[in-house]
UniProtKB/TrEMBL annotation:
Homodimer. This is Aspartate-semialdehyde dehydrogenase. Residues 5-119 form the Semialdehyde dehydrogenase NAD-binding domain. Pfam families: Semialdhyde_dh, Semialdhyde_dhC. It comes from Brachyspira catarrhinii.
Length: 338
């Protein structure tokens, strides 16, 4: 496969660091690698036994880059991604900046890989909670058409970036030493607590994070009438988001059928043996790419309705791995065109 010049914007962040690991693991074909950041500019990073220095990102950073992986916040992505595209790069953006832009494909490779071909320079990586839910739900949707999703999420602190992860660890240490907690990354203490707010509130009482599941789910599944009711909660877990999901389908899906469909699905592992205390848990899904699905059962309160529990590493499948899978599709499409 042709080697490409690859740029990683946000190389020292929680997602950026995972990207470097996954590029190595998947043996992504790289010619030149450029690592960009802001405060961490000047820091040395090892990749494939070679030392790289993080450079401060500016307008000229993207010259000669074929693909730019963006792992910064949406404000910075809005400024720099269009510059990267103008410089000739295909941008794969982890932020929410362009996800709902009609010209920008929003892709989960296990669900809608063909959408990558429609890009005009930018391809968006969906929200992490949405990716994990849709890897589990797309096979069921294909069989029985999902009409409505009701979800509650249990989201790890690393979903809020490296400083949030450090804060949970620090609070746990401070608790053990009987010290007063410092609170910076979240509005409240997160150690030994839950916070039922992720992102800011919309006028309708839902948070932006909750509305992402609705809007992004519709776009990825090409299902404009899909109904979604979601509650997102931050929990004191380092990584891997978990979700309790109930779906209402046009065609009935029995738990047995659901297990069969999910056992064959790409990117899914069925862990569903309650008698042996086997179900998905964030500690088990950390540091790997599959979405684990279990607790599959009929919703006894409604017709054609099924309940399940899933968990997945949101730094990997919910962000870094998904973006690199998209980059691999971009490379395949380049090869097909030749
Ligand atoms: N964390 C997750 O689970 C997750 C999942 C899906 C999507 N995302 C999205 O992925 C993006 C990155 O998230 P994260 O969790 O990795 O955040 P993070 O840990 O806070 O890292 C942010 C990165 O952005 C860089 N940065 C900040 N200002 C910059 C600037 N002006 N110019 C260049 N680089 C700059 C930082 O570099 P310096 O340290 O050098 O300043 C750092 O590398 C966000 O859009 C987030 O919403 C995150």
């Amino acid at each position: 496969m042709k080697k490409v010049n690859l740029c990683l914007l946000g190389a020292s962040g929680a997602v950026g660091k995972e990207m470097l690991k996954i590029l190595e693991e998947r043996d992504f074909p790289i010619n030149e690698l450029k690592l960009l950041g802001n405060k961490d500019a000047g820091k040395k990073v090892k990749f494939r036994n070679k030392e790289y220095t993080i450079e401060k990102a500016d307008k000229k950073s993207f010259k000669n880059m074929d693909i730019t992986l963006v792992a910064v916040g949406s404000d910075i992505s809005k400024k720099l991604s269009p510059i990267a595209v103008k410089s000739g790069s295909v941008v794969i953006d982890n932020s929410s900046a362009f996800r709902m832009d009609k010209k920008v494909p929003l892709v989960v490779p296990e669900v809608n890989p063909e959408d990558v071909k429609k890009h005009k320079g930018i391809i968006a990586n969906p929200n992490c909670t949405t990716i994990i839910a849709l890897v589990a739900l797309a096979p069921l949707h294909k069989y029985g058409k999902i009409k409505r999703i009701i979800a509650s999420t249990y989201q790890a602190v690393s979903g809020a970036g490296k400083e949030a992860m450090e804060e949970l660890e620090q609070q746990a240490r401070d608790w053990a030493e009987g010290k007063k907690f410092e609170i910076n990354a979240f509005k409240y203490q997160i150690c030994f607590n839950l916070i039922p707010q992720i992102d800011s509130f919309d006028k309708n009482g839902y948070t932006k994070e909750e509305l992402k599941m609705l809007n992004e789910g519709r776009k990825i599944l090409h299902s404009p009438n899909l109904k979604v009711n979601c509650t997102c909660v931050r929990v004191p877990v380092f990584r891997s988001h978990s979700e309790s999901i109930t779906i209402e389908t046009a065609k009935k899906i029995t738990p047995k059928k659901a297990r069969e469909l999910l056992a064959k699905a790409k990117g899914v592992k069925v862990v569903d043996n309650p008698a042996k205390f086997q179900y998905p848990m964030p500690l088990d899904t950390t540091n790997q790419d599959l979405v684990f699905v279990g607790r599959i059962r009929e919703d006894i309160s409604a017709k054609n309705s099924l309940t399940l529990w899933c968990a997945g590493d949101q730094l990997r499948k919910g962000a870094a791995t998904n973006a690199i899978q998209i980059a691999e599709l971009v490379l395949e499409n380049l090869k097909d065109k030749k």
